[in-house]
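To whoever is on call:

I kicked off a structure prediction for a single chain this morning and the downstream step that reads the tokens threw a length-mismatch warning. I double-checked the sequence; it's 175 residues and nothing unusual in it as far as I can see. Pasting both halves so you can look.
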Amino acid sequence: MFGLKVFRTRPSTTAGQALFDGAVRQARTTAFYEAMGVPDTVLGRFELYTLHVVLLSRRLRGQGPQAQETAQAMFDAYLLNLDIALREMGIGDLSMGKKMKKLGRAFYGRIKSWDEALGDPVATEALVARTVYGDAPGADPSALAVYIQTAADVLVRQDEAILLGGTAEWPEITI
């Protein structure tokens, strides 16, 4: 007799999705846009979503197979949501592959850039100015740069088991 096999979602997949969802919630905090002046544009939001996912990826790096699987699941959720957003903006199937490759390269470039900048306040602020604010008039990247370093420090101190369960605590946004 043949039975129906039920497939269960791996815990790392569930945790990765939960971490991504939490990163998106944090990136949507209005204080970034209202108090810190992050441009409330597609690009501004992309940079904040990416930043939070990068910070989580950095925290999970080198923490073993479960952390690697969870980080990969989070990245997969990130890419899936980018795909959905691009399609909602009208990007067609023919150009989607090129767009996704470009965004994937941008993500890995951001990881490298943040790895080099974090811990150095001047470099962090310069990276924030370049990537998040771009040519926004009157932008002051200092508060966001402080938040980013604080967030990286907070994540490092968080219990790995809690992170692998899909929960990340983010610092309060202060101006």
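Update from on-call: the warning came from a stale cache, not from the record. Cleared it. Sanity check on the structure: Helices lie at 11-27, 30-34, 42-60, 65-88, 93-117, 121-133, 142-157, 160-164.
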